[in-house]
Amino acid sequence: MRIAILGSGKIGYAILKGLKENDIAEYLIGTGRSEATLNKIKNLGVEATSDNNYAVRNADYIIISVKPQHFMSLIKTIDPESWKEKTVISVMAGIKISTIKKLIEAREIYRAMPNINALIGKSTTAIAEGRNESVDKIFKSIGSTYWIQEDLLDVWTALIGSGPAFVAELVDAFVLGAVNCGMPRELAYNTVLDMIKSTSDMLSKSNSHPLDLRDNVTTPAGTTIKGLLVMESEGIKAGIIKTIEASYKRSIDLGKDMQNNLIS
């Protein structure tokens, strides 16, 4: 595969890194605007350029990884003919495939939604829609992939895109709870991370409902039920449900604003 990444910020750079480390591409090029970004790409042993048109012309798979508000500026730098017969994958939030098709003429167009864990090769990435083994291979270089309908990308953004921030907030709450009870912060932090990893593994391997694990830990009049009582009275579960819902609605609103700005 001959692959170009247009925009080598956090996600674009993570994809470049994953592709390079896994030797996925026959040819790989990344674009950037600043010298710092271009040097970062070169330090991966990847060709770097500020010429987006050159990158598109020389690749078969094009990943658009610029901020959505910069998309129109990007396509103005590229000859419309350069897109033809290319497979394009957008990782821009909010811009629908139908809108991209109105602006560029490519062979195939997909949307992908990685998350910040791509930086360590552990992204959980949604791809919409259809199925393309080469596209799947590209994103498997930075983690796991799930092919979904495009209309699920807003809730995916809330759950999986924003999810690492929500989990980090919960981790900090666990740690502060332990510190409040006298445990050194470093010990609390490391053990909380271990506990979350092993709990995730157990849930994954057991194929059972999370409440089964909860009930296995909970004994009559024990420590767990007292803690669960506080979680219930404080509305922790309802708060998390509302958190996902609020993030989901914001994703929809941002997408509508972006669509309106692009087609106006």
Automatic annotation (TrEMBL):
It holds the Pfam family F420_oxidored. The keyword Ribosomal protein does not apply. Keywords: Amino-acid biosynthesis, Cytoplasm, NADP, Oxidoreductase, Proline biosynthesis. One of its GO terms (molecular function) is pyrroline-5-carboxylate reductase activity. One of its GO terms (cellular component) is cytoplasm. GO terms for biological process: L-proline biosynthetic process. InterPro entries: 6-PGluconate_DH-like_C_sf (IPR008927), NAD(P)-bd_dom_sf (IPR036291), P5C_Rdtase_cat_N (IPR028939), P5CR-like_CS (IPR053790), P5CR_dimer (IPR029036), Pyrroline-COOH_reductase (IPR000304). PROSITE patterns: P5CR (PS00521). Pathway: Amino-acid biosynthesis; L-proline biosynthesis; L-proline from L-glutamate 5-semialdehyde: step 1/1. Residues 150-252 form the Pyrroline-5-carboxylate reductase dimerisation domain. Its EC number is 1.5.1.2. Its main location: cytoplasm. Residues 2-94 form the Pyrroline-5-carboxylate reductase catalytic N-terminal domain. It catalyses: L-proline + NADP(+) = (S)-1-pyrroline-5-carboxylate + NADPH + 2 H(+); L-proline + NAD(+) = (S)-1-pyrroline-5-carboxylate + NADH + 2 H(+). NADPH binds at residue 52. It is found in: Cytoplasm. It is an enzyme of class 1 (oxidoreductase). Belongs to the pyrroline-5-carboxylate reductase family. Catalyzes the reduction of 1-pyrroline-5-carboxylate (PCA) to L-proline. NCBIfam families: proC (TIGR00112). This is Pyrroline-5-carboxylate reductase. It comes from Acidianus manzaensis.
